[in-house]
Amino acid sequence: MERRPKNCPPVPQPIRDDGAGATDPGPRDVMRDLENPDMLVPPATDAGKIPNLKFSFSDTYMQLFHGGWSREVTVRQLPIATTLAGVNMRLTPGGVRELHWHKQAEWAFMLVGRARITAVDQDGRNFIADVGVGDLWYFPPGIPHSIQGCEFLLVFDDGNFSENDTFTISDWFAHTPKDVLSANFGVQESAFAQIPSSQKYMFQSYVPGPIETQKVSSPYGTVPKSFTHRLLAQRPIRTPGGTVRIVDSSNFPISTTIAAAFVEVEPGGMREMHWHPNNDEWQYYLTGTARMTVFASNGTARTFNYRAGDVGYVPFAMGHYIQNTGNQKLMFLEMFKSNRFADVSLNQWMALTPRELVEDNLHVGPELMNALRKQKWPVVKYK
What we know:
By secondary structure, this protein is mostly beta strands. It folds into two domains: 59-229, Jelly Rolls (Sandwich); 232-381, Jelly Rolls. Helix content is 11%, strand content 37%. The chain contains seven helices and 24 strands. The strands form three sheets. Strands 2, 3, 4, 5, 6, 7, 8, 9, 10, 11 and 12 form an eleven-stranded antiparallel beta sheet that branches. Strand 2 (63-65) and strand 3 form a beta hairpin. The chain is globular. It comes from Polycladomyces subterraneus. This is Oxalate decarboxylase family bicupin.
């Protein structure tokens, strides 16, 4: 008989409380099953076929460089996620994500430490800023920029995006004849004797000095709309179960293709049952553990479990909730390929619909009807 260490959690079995299922003697990944209890034992309300709506950054390929690392979750890892893609990147002190640009817009959330970013727009107006934990930046498509320092999440407005498709300055120089470089810049070819022979992508440099020492004066001035936003400095929407901070083009004007919500759910709390009428939802989990059931219409629903470092996805207009299943605060980002954040609350919809119509539709009485709220509570307390 197998001896299990003391304090080791019991081996979960795919058996529901109603008796459905059977033991699984293996082979199996018990640790994975412990992380996904509602996938091993789906609620009886789950039904039908819904594609996978979860992928962990821990399951992606890690690219290692002198200066840091990067990993991505795109449509290649999570095929349902067609609207947005994400890159988790870490730069060492002095590490640089080299001068580059993308076909897609880049939206970012600082996870750890501080970073310095630079950019120049199509009118020659430049930008430099230092950002810290919880700060955002947004670079429109085609705007050249650089990043130096610490860890962040990058989100791009195309699920097919790949970091390997980035336009980098070293790559362009390496693949341009030196006589052309000479003619372009008006210097001798010898000036390019030491340029990289291939793309650098990321490299180790020095820790930059005070921002004032790196500012470059442009005759055209600085960009008219800031590329950065202090999300955690916003006053949150507070409800009994937690808080929500919403950021879109209404309060971060440059961010015209990505809208987001930063959600904090206390233990015993839940992101209420709702859906989004504008686009698919791409999620990134920062802390805690959660479960989410997605309702896809026509008697179809599926439940998933999430933890820090996971990406979740909800296709357009599908109903869902996100429940804190742990004893610590759950924090996650909801992101959308849209210029505005929008959601429809199930509770509010019912409260603002004629009472008799709701009662006849659902066969419910005063206990539920009197509890409905006309005001939206993004996060609710259930225990």
